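Q: Here's a chain of 398 amino acids. Please give me its 3D structure as tokens.
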Amino acid sequence: MNKPTTINGYELAELLGSGGMGEVYRAVHPQIKRVVAIKLLKDSTGALRERSINEARIQAGLHHPNIAALHDFLEWQGQPCLILEYVDGQTLAELLETRQRFAPAEALKHFQAVVAAVAYLHEHKIIHRDIKANNIKLSTAGEIKLLDFGIAKDGAAPKMTMTGAFIGTLSCLAPEQLEGRADARSDVWALGVLLYQLVTGRLPFESQTLTQFYEQIRKCSYPAASQLNSAVPRALDELIAQCLKKNPAERPSDAGELLRAVQRLAQPAGQDAILSHKPIEPTLRPRLFYAVAFSLFAVVMSVILFWPTSSPPPSNAFVAPRPSATTTTPGELRTIHIDAVDGQAEVYQAGQRLGVTPHALHARVGERIALELRRDGAVRQVEFAVTDNRRSYTYAVK
């Protein structure tokens, strides 16, 4: 593909990213001074072309403050081209690389904006199917924007095929998506993964082997967020647990139902729960709550009587038991996982090739790690200190 300098009257100012599917540029219209993002795809035929047309068709009808707008769709030298709203700032994935995690109140604020965008999609019978931190940007003005509708689906979307048995990003897939099925409740699962990642800096499901990874997702086996970050209150643990139910019927029916629960948490009483770790009345599935309230009362009273200074554990049957209180010894050996967004990358350390992502690396707490990630001529140098509460490091290679 020849490197363009102008497309449809827009002057290309900066290459924002490139990969196997195409390139994304920041561009400026010289007359009207509009700044846009231009996504230029490499493949002019086949499945990728079909995907780009589907993305443009769906995004053209969306008008929401937390969804990046589509300005135009055209062909440049026979290649599909999307002209999109330019969103400055960083993706949530990039922010997590530097910040490790968000404070619960801030995480909930950003999460509410994402859920509002997805609720709008579900209201219009659209499922996104690829909700993840890398597809969400926080602008310099503090606005959340949902991006990338390449595999979104509505009633008119064509059947898409990909290598493998599923469509989407493995770490964010619901159990039913591993079997090729998806609906609005699958997006709700991905939203639960996102909230977990925002408050812990980790994904709920991590493993060194693909088989173990599948099993963790299918069994909904993950440590509660509060086990990894003691600042996470019970209210958020419960919200995450509702999203990450193995049976889709036990999750919120769509993002609209989830949004109502999040909005309740955003109210003063809910904010008090977030800041003070007090439990709040459940808002999801209220009939189920009242059906089991009496039986739970005795358990709650036992906790109050015998553990008055500690918070009750989250109500999630699939969460592993809370480990005994121990203090990690500085220098303790840890297994950490190095990964790259949007495909595999080669991992190098001190010029020596270690393997490809996802790559497991053994290091000690406090040890500084310097790595180089390479993909398709692009090189990303990363450096970090191994901490006790983070096991996964994911980077964009551009």
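Q: Can you summarize the key feature?
A: The CA atoms of residues 69 and 85 lie 5 Å apart.
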